Amino acid sequence: VQLQAFGGGLVPAGGSLRLSCAASGGTSSSYIMGWFRQGPGGERDLVALISRSGGSTDYADSVKGRFTISRDKAKNTVFLQMNSLKPEDTGVYYCAANKYYNDYRASTYDYWGQGTQVTVSS
Prior knowledge:
Distance between the termini: 37 Å
Structural class: mainly beta
Radius of gyration: 13 Å
Oligomer: single chain
């Protein structure tokens, strides 16, 4: 499956963005999907994940109550709605697909999109 993430941009603190991850060459609902953020240190940290059915989600503590992950099976797309953005949310956001595990570790994900830059100004 190929993943393409888009929707990043430059926003002021307190603003909102909606990221999209479009899947092709496969069905995204066959996978657990995650959004990761890569900061200056280079590590990719899990921001949110969603189960195959969409019935279960999980979030990093830093984004709970502000971000919402969802999926549209008909559009084969996963979304990340980001509200009340903070400067520390800045980074490159990647979507990723995991065949087997609801896992926070980037190393367990099988497919990755190309990343989209999110910059939040103070």
